[in-house]
Amino acid sequence: MSRRVVVTGMGVCTSLGHTLDDFWNSLIAGKSGISRIEGFDASPFPTRIAAEIKDFDPDQYIEKKDSRLMDRFSQLAVAAASKALKDAGLNTHDYERPERIGVIVGSGVGGNNTWEEQIIVLHERGVRQLNPYFIPMMIVNMGSGQVSMFTGAKGPISTTATACASGTNAIGDAFKLIQRGAADVMICGGAEASVSPGGLGGFCALRALSVRNDEPERASRPFDIGRNGFVMGEGSGMLILEEMDHAIARGARIYAEVAGYGMSADAYNMTLPAPEGEGAARCMAEALKDAAMGAEQVQYINAHGTSTPAGDRTETTAIKTVFGSHAHELFISSTKSMTGHLLGAAGAVEAVISVLTLTTGRIAPTINLEEPDPQCDLNYTANAAVERRVDAVLTNSFGFGGFNASLIFKRWNG
């Protein structure tokens, strides 16, 4: 069985806005959501900037008695899922067959804040003072679990924990579940809340982060010769995927069709991409094959584009390998230049961006691209949005450990 799958709802929680309109308008305007960290004292750290969500109130979405038993990443997941369901016009609690609605939420780290807080309690106050919900709050699968409990979805449930590919894998896996008939509706995406002393400190120790602390808005600069690392972000992006006939029968508004999904492994290094982007190239090629599309049918790529020296160059090489001469005709952008890198949630938020690109005919820019790296010589939509009809979008996510995932969305033509 191979059924067509469409996108009928989307929701976001990001440093650039909590509604689709606010988020999209900020991106198109080239606004950065990166600033100095306020959630804790970051002054001792080499990097003191991030894309924090500074106005998130979980009590707007979750009863206080429940939200206090949830890590921030789960709160963000539930909030974004609630928005996506509202956008899709789906009331899951009144749905006649909740066992046909599934959930997959990806996260690279999970309950990082809870882990750090409770380890301090353990060492300073002793084991008897640990929160009884320490483990249920912290474990990475609880984003999916909480979304399931809050929506009443009783169908297939899973969690992807594939580092920075987690959100993309969650959507791709959900796509395949519907395609093969295991569910009619999937709530899927990613959530991450790792802007914490431990999260920041770990990436600082790895020397992976930008240290452009005096210019936060200009720190994330994918494909620019002056880039010196990525900028952490937090947030959540969620999509409602539905089997096409199911969506049509209930009169749903359809944003786009999910066309293809590819995965691959680098089998190379814990943190560095495979030489020449070999694994990334195979991943994109697999997505095209799954979609039964030629490379020339794609007009836009939402790049992984983290603003790291090795990553941006190898992704550029991989795109050239897959798309050949058409690579120079593509519009490409890294929206991480504005959102920061949301780790396990990045691919989900970028899937939302990819779908909005199809529906609005506007391509978000790569900001801060002032002097392109000579080895990054494609069209990265530098600094200003472009009006352009787009019929097919490919979005990339590549994670530590050599995890690669790509999705293709195409215009819905009824």
Automatic annotation (TrEMBL):
Pathway: Lipid metabolism; fatty acid biosynthesis
A Pfam family of this chain: ketoacyl-synt
Catalytic activity: (9Z)-hexadecenoyl-[ACP] + malonyl-[ACP] + H(+) = 3-oxo-(11Z)-octadecenoyl-[ACP] + holo-[ACP] + CO2; a fatty acyl-[ACP] + malonyl-[ACP] + H(+) = a 3-oxoacyl-[ACP] + holo-[ACP] + CO2
Domain Ketosynthase family 3 (KS3), residue spans: 2-411
InterPro entries per UniProt: 3-oxoacyl-ACP_synth-2 (IPR017568), Beta-ketoacyl_synthase (IPR000794), Ketoacyl_synth_AS (IPR018201), Ketoacyl_synth_C (IPR014031), Ketoacyl_synth_N (IPR014030), PKS_Beta-ketoAc_synthase_dom (IPR020841), Thiolase-like (IPR016039)
Entry's EC annotation: 2.3.1.179
Enzyme class name: transferase
MF terms (GO), sorted A to Z: 3-oxoacyl-[acyl-carrier-protein] synthase activity
Superkingdom assignment: Bacteria
Keyword tags: Acyltransferase, Fatty acid biosynthesis, Fatty acid metabolism, Lipid biosynthesis, Lipid metabolism, Transferase
Protein family membership: Belongs to the thiolase-like superfamily. Beta-ketoacyl-ACP synthases family.
Function of the molecule: Involved in the type II fatty acid elongation cycle. Catalyzes the elongation of a wide range of acyl-ACP by the addition of two carbons from malonyl-ACP to an acyl acceptor. Can efficiently catalyze the conversion of palmitoleoyl-ACP (cis-hexadec-9-enoyl-ACP) to cis-vaccenoyl-ACP (cis-octadec-11-enoyl-ACP), an essential step in the thermal regulation of fatty acid composition.
Protein name: 3-oxoacyl-[acyl-carrier-protein] synthase 2
Gene designation: fabF
